[in-house]
Amino acid sequence: MSRPTYHHGDLRRAVLTAALDVIRTEGPSALSLRDLARRAGVSHAAPAHHFKDRAGLLTAIAAEGFDLLAYSLAEAPDLRERGVRYVRFALDHPAHFQVMFQPELLRPDDPDLLAAKSRADAELRAGVTQQRPAEDTDLMSMAAWSVAHGFATLLLTRNLDRPLGDRDPEEAFRALAGTMFGPAR
User: Fold this and answer.
1) Which of 139, 124, 112, 115 is nearest to 74 (CA)?
2) Span 54-181: which CATH code?
3) Cα angle, residue 72 at apex, residues 101 and 107 outer, rounded to 5°
4) Domain with CATH 1.10.357.10 in the chain
5) Are 69 and 89 in contact (CB under 8 A)?
6) pLDDT number for residue 151
7) pLDDT over 70 for what percent of the chain?
8) Alpha-carbon gap, residue 142 to 138, rounded angstroms
9) What torsion, rounded to 10 degrees, do the Cα atoms 108, 117, 173, 95 define?
10) CATH 1.10.20: does it fit domain 1-51?
């Protein structure tokens, strides 16, 4: 006998939350709309109503992640702290972080995704412009992003466990950013 399904008050959020749980524990390749519907207790077709397919769901997760990242970066007073916020975002939202930077999983022309990416990019660039107004913003943005993204990725994959030891990752990143980009202006 199958489990009864019901009308869900916020199916979109329930499916996103279930998907983030799956990604966090098993990775994006483990996602299936049918399994997410089962977890949410709704018909197997219900998630498709909101996301159409797996790529639509992953695109929604990435767009949400870029929006969360942009919000987090906007709260930081300078470039170094924006880098710290980037690292903290990756640690606090590892499932979003996994999906956001895998373009082959996403709909690259999705308007919500493009707008969210643009907001996050603008916040990173604002920190660069504030820190180094006379320098090449594109090059500095690429350098700052590479350092923060690389550090966050290495943390998430536990490749920095031994080098960091008991050191706080945020403090380690502040020191690294200070070494590479100099003091805040």
Assistant:
1) 124
2) 1.10.357.10
3) 30
4) 54-181
5) yes
6) 97
7) 91
8) 6
9) -60
10) no
